[in-house]
């Protein structure tokens, strides 16, 4: 019996497939104010797992969480010239509070460099206070003209790190550490998303930064998604807020700073990296539900077994859900779990019970086979690790197979428009070539060294530009 | 050598002591927009621990986390008459976004009943979708004319639960379950704050609720702090949003709802319940740092031992910090940890090392004595449990010793103004007496049954009003 397609096939209309998955897997809805979103429990469960994994890595890097206000006095935004220019068009402004017009309007934070630097300038007194390593989990608002759930929303959730250091080198090394040990490690080893690590071209840098490190993932349609960024801010904000420390030798020195962020946009990246025509595929290490045990029929012995098996799998350390809603047709439930991308679906009916088996459907490689039910708790963790590795391998192979080395702007544009990335020597492309790419909405995603490492400077010999279309 | 007092003594000026603790223990700063706050890492660490403990209990009660937008169309706020009247004076309004005046202004959520009900009305179709149990961790904004850090801030962090049920009884029972199994359990067994559980008088109910359950703690100055509330919303919001379900018999019925919340205000309650003239005292089960191991001197063997002891204590399951900042005077560091209320301070110097001992300072009972350093990992967990129990006992004894049974409004007012609570039969007090109390800023904190349970109705026989002044 052929199933009617629940989703628009990716090949027919990728953006529509994306919207379909988000709606059918109950990840999110559009909010009532244009560009906002409601993150539904399953979507939020994925975000919570991202938070847990990221938070542990951020703390291991030495940063501590704090919370700064949502509202920023409008006058703060003008203190750093490039920064205000970058964010002014996207600001939401509160003009009334408590029934009165405010003396000074407040801006809803689009990012917190400004307000955090105000406090850093008070907290940092001596070199003993450095490095100061702060992270914040928060909502931010950037008014979006062309919103798209998870990818570009007027309000989104994120973490933003902000640090102050005594020296340029220490700040540079910390930005690089976050880039590699926190972000790349999480994306490759938990999200199973192959990412290219590089530095942004000057035109693509964060407003107010002296260097922006980025992680770029290739989505299944060949477009790029910026999955996270880590910025060296130099002394730009320190100068604006006069953030100085007393050095060991008694001089008053400006601090060197970094900031770095990742957001709910990663949920969009997850969907577009691993999803297929049957829905999401969630990497096991991330999955809020790694295995679901389904009762096929409303039978007391079946119900008892799915519940005890659920407990066994949970004892084995797996995140498990038991689906004993036998008042909902089995086929509908199976399709729902498939849409939600739960890695392992274990189905038990009366016949399985008699045979001592269960049907195991593996969402990531696909396929369905009977397994000895008593062996599941010991076998499943290993299978899930195989699935995890498979997703990363598929993501990497996809990116490699769709990346071509080219020599001219024309070839680079053609590769991008064909649904892939091009690598071209930055010395040949340069800011001029970058402008020509822009005519076809093609951008420099990042600059990389020939050996795949992150170049120490834009003009380091052998630097390549990775170009493509982007979300 | 007598120490100069670091804090204003509680007896001299309690509000100033409170501000001193917040500042000296580095819990929070005032934000630049009036009424907002910056939660510093140590204060946020306490909030994170509250979140972890609460979140586990909320999930155990069956609710799942989700996220709804910060911005609510202004028109939504008017849908439920009492609700809009309750919140209108406190709203912050966004009139401009993306450089343009908005067609419809957006309100920054003061609470999310309105927006969540909009989605509940779409998600709830049949009785199979019920109960729908949602929780959200978020920031909310209520414009505050007389702000006070953690207690009343224009922006605060909280969790808000929102549920929909098929029957009145199911909704009522769930509101009661959150009240007791989530909130009271957390406050008594983790925060070590003795709370009185009761129902609000009609005048003190949440705007739009048919019943509000509350938890009231007595602060060290004898004033009350509302630590959390759980509301039965009846069908008021369901009617406003036409949130209906198809019953098993095929009729379309309005849902019954609850909402419930606790916030960063609990941090204020923690400070004012357990703090003393030397600073905070954090209950061990909550404490982000349960034990700190201090190197008294910059000596290689001492440093090696504090680090290895830190690792031993961490292996024993304790949350530990090692303080090896020997470039800061030891006395200053000891006072800082005392201010921060870390339950156990373990000090090691060269002489301790030679004797195989460490000095153990216990913040909660007070006092300092040498202990065998090798025994610490096995002894400390038990001592911390004793400290936890002591804090709850002190909180309970304080409340009981300052609560008096009275018969008249005059006596009730006198008891409250003397710095305590009074219990008075609600049948004698009633809404008229409640108004007279208000002339002296005394309020009915809650209604309780004679046996201490929560009355099933305002007019249940034997119902007592607990009255006092409140934050």
TrEMBL record, chains A, B:
SMART domains: ProRS-C_1. The keyword Transmembrane does not apply. Keywords: Aminoacyl-tRNA synthetase, ATP-binding, Cytoplasm, Ligase, Nucleotide-binding, Protein biosynthesis. It catalyses: tRNA(Pro) + L-proline + ATP = L-prolyl-tRNA(Pro) + AMP + diphosphate. InterPro entries: aa-tRNA-synt_IIb, aa-tRNA-synth_II, aa-tRNA-synth_II/BPL/LPL, Anticodon-bd, Anticodon-bd_dom_sf, Pro-tRNA-ligase_IIa, Pro-tRNA-ligase_IIa_arc-type, Pro-tRNA_ligase_II_C. One of its GO terms (molecular function) is proline-tRNA ligase activity. It comes from the Bacteria. Residues 34-283 form the Aminoacyl-transfer RNA synthetases class-II family profile domain. Its EC number is 6.1.1.15. The keyword Hydrolase does not apply. It is found in: Cytoplasm. Belongs to the class-II aminoacyl-tRNA synthetase family. ProS type 3 subfamily. Consists of three domains: the N-terminal catalytic domain, the anticodon-binding domain and the C-terminal extension. Homodimer. Catalyzes the attachment of proline to tRNA(Pro) in a two-step reaction: proline is first activated by ATP to form Pro-AMP and then transferred to the acceptor end of tRNA(Pro). This is Proline--tRNA ligase. It comes from Streptomyces boetiae. The gene is proS.
């Amino acid at each position: 019996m052929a199933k009617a397609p629940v989703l628009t096939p990716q090949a027919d209309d990728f953006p529509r497939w994306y919207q379909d998955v988000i709606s059918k897997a109950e990840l999110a809805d559009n909010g009532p104010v244009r560009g906002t979103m409601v993150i539904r429990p399953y979507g939020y469960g994925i975000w919570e797992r991202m938070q847990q994994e990221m938070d542990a890595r951020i703390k291991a890097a030495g940063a501590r969480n704090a919370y700064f206000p949502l509202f920023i006095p409008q006058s703060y935004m003008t203190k750093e010239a490039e920064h205000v220019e970058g964010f002014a068009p996207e600001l939401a402004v509160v003009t009334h509070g408590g029934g009165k017009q405010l003396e000074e309007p407040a801006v809803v934070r689009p990012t917190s460099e400004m307000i955090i630097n105000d406090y850093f300038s008070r907290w940092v007194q001596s070199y003993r206070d450095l490095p100061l390593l702060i992270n914040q989990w928060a909502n931010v608002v950037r008014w979006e003209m062309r919103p798209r759930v998870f990818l570009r929303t007027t309000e989104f959730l994120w973490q933003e790190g902000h640090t102050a250091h005594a020296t340029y080198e220490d700040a540079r090394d910390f930005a690089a550490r976050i880039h590699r040990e926190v972000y790349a490690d999480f994306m490759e080893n938990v999200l199973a998303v192959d990412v290219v690590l590089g530095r942004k071209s000057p035109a693509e840098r964060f407003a107010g930064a002296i260097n922006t490190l980025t992680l770029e993932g290739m989505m299944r349609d060949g477009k790029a998604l910026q999955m996270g960024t880590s910025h060296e801010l130099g002394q730009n904000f320190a100068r604006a807020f006069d953030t100085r420390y007393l050095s060991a030798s008694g001089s008053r020195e400006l601090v060197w700073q970094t900031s770095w962020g990742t957001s709910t946009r990663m949920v969009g990246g997850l969907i577009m990296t691993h999803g297929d025509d049957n829905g999401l595929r969630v990497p096991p290490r991330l999955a809020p539900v790694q295995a679901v045990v389904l009762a096929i029929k409303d039978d007391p012995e079946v119900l008892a077994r799915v519940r005890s098996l659920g407990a066994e799998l949970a004892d084995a350390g797996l995140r498990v859900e038991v689906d004993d809603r036998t008042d909902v047709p089995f086929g509908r439930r199976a399709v729902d779990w498939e849409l939600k991308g739960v890695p392992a679906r274990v189905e038990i009916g009366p016949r399985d019970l008699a045979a001592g088996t269960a049907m195991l459907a593996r969402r990531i490689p696909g396929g369905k086979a009977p397994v000895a039910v008593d062996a599941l708790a010991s076998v499943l963790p290993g299978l899930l690790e195989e699935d995890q590795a498979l997703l990363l391998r598929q993501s990497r192979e996809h990116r490699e197979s769709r990346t071509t080395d080219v020599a001219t702007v024309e070839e680079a544009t053609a590769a991008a428009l064909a649904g892939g990335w091009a690598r071209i020597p930055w010395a040949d492309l340069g800011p001029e070539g970058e402008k020509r790419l822009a005519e076809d909405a093609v951008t420099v995603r990042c600059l990389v060294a020939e050996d795949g490492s992150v170049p120490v400077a834009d003009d380091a010999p052998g630097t390549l530009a990775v170009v493509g279309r982007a979300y």
